[in-house]
């Protein structure tokens, strides 16, 4: 699992996440800053796993998560809200709390690959 899709509406966080993933040996193959582009990318792009911001400019990323579930793509949430959005499935998804350190991202990615 090397190619990662990032859904993040804050450009600085997206760049930081991309750098951190590169340090861990992953490659960001796609990113989307809003729900519309995230849905299109999740539907039409090949990747191994995704990292989803819970809130995209006030819109829930849950529709993207549902699409990833349908495609059988693993993902985790990165959020400052503390938990995955209601309706998320499965409930055992890793949740990365913002702000996070490289070691926390590394642990969350390990959980994701073991799920």
TrEMBL record:
InterPro entries the UniProt entry points to: Bact_response_regulator (IPR050595), CheY-like_superfamily (IPR011006), Sig_transdc_resp-reg_receiver (IPR001789)
Transmembrane segments: none
Domain Response regulatory: 3-113
GO biological process per UniProt: phosphorelay signal transduction system
Positions carrying 4-aspartylphosphate: 53
Pfam families reported for this sequence: Response_reg (PF00072)
Keyword Signal: no
This protein's record includes keyword S-adenosyl-L-methionine: no
Gene3D superfamilies on file: 3.40.50.2300
Keyword annotations: Phosphoprotein
Superkingdom in the source lineage: Bacteria
Protein name: Response regulator
Species in which this protein is naturally found: Rhizobium leguminosarum
């Amino acid at each position: 699992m090397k190619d990662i899709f990032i859904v993040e509406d804050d450009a600085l966080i997206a760049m930081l996440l991309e750098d951190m993933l590169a340090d861990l040996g992953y490659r960001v193959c796609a990113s989307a800053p809003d729900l519309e582009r995230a849905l299109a990318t999740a539907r039409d792009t090949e990747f191994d796993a995704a990292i989803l911001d819970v809130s995209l400019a006030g819109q829930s990323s849950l529709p993207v998560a549902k699409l990833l579930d349908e495609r059988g793509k693993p993902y985790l949430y990165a959020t400052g809200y503390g938990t995955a959005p209601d309706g998320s499935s499965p409930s055992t998804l890793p949740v990365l709390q913002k702000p996070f350190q490289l070691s926390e991202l590394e642990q969350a990615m390990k959980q994701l690959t073991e799920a």
